[in-house]
Fold this protein.
Amino acid sequence: MGMFENLAGGFVVALSASNLFYCALGAVLGTAIGVLPGLGPPATIALLLPVTFKMEPVSAVIMLAGIFYGAMYGGSTTSILLNIPGEAASVVTCLDGYKMARNGQAGKALGISAIGSFIAGTLGVLGVSVMAPTLASFALKFGPPEYCCLVFLGLMMAIYLSEESILKGLMMGALGLLLGTVGLDPVDGIPRFTLGFNRLMDGVDFVVMAMGLFGIAEILCNLEVPENREVFKTSLKGLLPTLQDWRRCWAAVLRGSFLGFFIGVLPGGGAIISSFAAYAVEKRLSRYPEQFGKGAIEGVAAPEAANNAASTSSFIPLLTLGIPGNASIAMIFVALMIHGIRPGPLLLQEHPNLFWGVIASMYIGNALLLALNLPLINFWVRMLKVPYRYLAVVVVVVCVIGAYSVNSSAWDVGMMVFFGILGYLLRKFAFPASPFILAMILGPMLEKTLQQSLIASGGHFATFLDRPISATLLIVAGLLMLTPLAKAIWKKR
Amino acid sequence: MRKTGDIVVGLCFLAIGIVFAVNSVKLKIGVPTEPQPGFFPFIDGIILIALSVLFLFQAWRGKAGESPAFGKVGGPAIVVLTLLLYVATLETLGYVVTTAILSAVVLRAMETKPRILLLVSVILAVVSYLLFDRLLGVTLPPGLMAAFL
């Protein structure tokens, strides 16, 4: 079957009434939390995980994916109007977006970021439909040693790219791997590190942990800072860019899309780095670099395109290799696992409807977002006037209910509070949470493939270097770890 | 400059690494040809110990990055305390009562006026109970309110 037939099948799935509803719901929710500062996509997806227990797996992923890319649309609105990033990937949009708003061009800035996001999102989805099947069939040839190295490289990349301090990232990764071993040993079924609690036999519940680590921790952090929000009062006229704006922007949008797409595929790459990279590239290529930071329209268009393309392409490692590259995608991984679906190279063969249905829903979602966002922009702006405390208190209550609903017991609420406190302290000491989550999720797979490879090779660690693919993966991982060291030595000389 | 906070954090990580490594030995590590359940966590534990020592070394020499900027910690502290009490009393006092108190504390920590605070927390607790317990079929503990709900 060709790609187009597959995609057509996907559209049949995505266009069913219920899936269309979940796609729209996800996109709208995503925009809302993107607009509102103080609640990010991973937290929102974690909060909604218990809701997806009873849904069809396809619908669940369609909705959760919608939240993720919808947030990229919404985030720019707050950056432009408030000079506060609605979510992390829109930080760089503040630079020129807010300046444009001050110059009376708020409408134009909002318009170009929505249209740029749409173009990038659509291109990104096209890229996913072309690249994902190829990568999946390639990954099918992987044996345990290749898989082991791939997971290892994925973790290393996520650590290397996500934060400034690699040491802290590595520590969080190691901690995540250790917590991932709590529960029954995947090979022999012997309980490990359960401290005698029967409740820990199945390991630490991901849903409960994620709600604590993202939901509760986020609220606790925000409790420290007094609320201060001022919406920039301006008329939102002229949302559509003029022909002249287009002439300045189209290349920036395309460059941003491509850059974002390729950075987004890398674990840990994601939307934040890609938006910064796109901004830097535009500034360097521009004929008027002096306008950047003073309201250059390319400075809004390119990063917004990049973060959208990146959020789309970060589904590639999840759907083809079973490796989540960032915290939001990790939550979608958890949603799939709850439904007994193991993401990986076999996903495309075993669940073609899910695979293509999700991809098709992303086309639809992007179109919906464009249609929703431009006319509704005044509505989103008005939503910003609702004080944060009401959002915060609802988040706390939803977290509590969600955790309780997992097993109908206060134990899980307690676990969530524990992870909430942990997440709060880790944030305070600038320890990144995402390597921890990724390591915890990937730990069992790493352990299993490591043991299988060692047993098959008669206990030789050299087996990883004997096979070309695994050797390459390991060498790349090694080089990544050595770069900061090399940099440090270089600086000293 | 030495970073006391970072040193404490580093010691915590170190302790976790040691606890896991020691308990892995109890689970039996085995040999690479025949790995036992303790094999993987043991390697991990050792790695975490090594990383923590490196981190402690950096913190000692004052190189471990910025120290944390705690804002007003009163808010988070009181909410954490209330959350712990919430967990302890949820099943006896019931969802509605405990949730109303929890919401009130969160709202108070965010400087809400008392009258609005009472109204919002009571409404939130009751409405969320009706929505999730009655409509969506999540069983929440009724506790004290069993007779009314």
